[in-house]
């Protein structure tokens, strides 16, 4: 979930008028305010050319990367649940916990889809206000 934090911070950076630089690389500069800078740089480096020409695309890139990774994690956890070695009475408690984890990730994926749609709407000249 660190990437959610990354995308939020990138949104704040891209919207601020006073932008500071902590490196010579645009991606490194965008990631310098995050807690997990190496992860941010690795995750967003493929978006650097596009986002450099339009900094407002950084938030969309961050949410897109987070969404993709969340989907991958959900698929991995579902495969674990289906694994035959992960069955039996002694693992029932673990199986229930893993099922809860899968449910949380599925909800996170749904929320990220909504966030991405909202970001795209806002960045493409959509509504001026965001309401809950």
From TrEMBL:
Give the domain of life. Eukaryota
Offer an example of a GO molecular function term for this protein. Answer: enzyme inhibitor activity
Signal peptide residues are 1-18
The alphabetized UniProt keywords are: Signal
The reply to whether Signal figures as a keyword in the UniProt entry is yes
PANTHER family in the record:
PECTINESTERASE INHIBITOR-LIKE, PLANT INVERTASE_PECTIN METHYLESTERASE INHIBITOR SUPERFAMILY PROTEIN
Q: Where are the transmembrane segments?
A: none
Task: State the family it belongs to.
Answer: Belongs to the PMEI family.
- What are the residue boundaries of the Pectinesterase inhibitor domain, all occurrences included? 26-120
The protein here is known as Pectinesterase inhibitor domain-containing protein
Phylogenetic placement of the source organism: Eukaryota, Viridiplantae, Streptophyta, Embryophyta, Tracheophyta
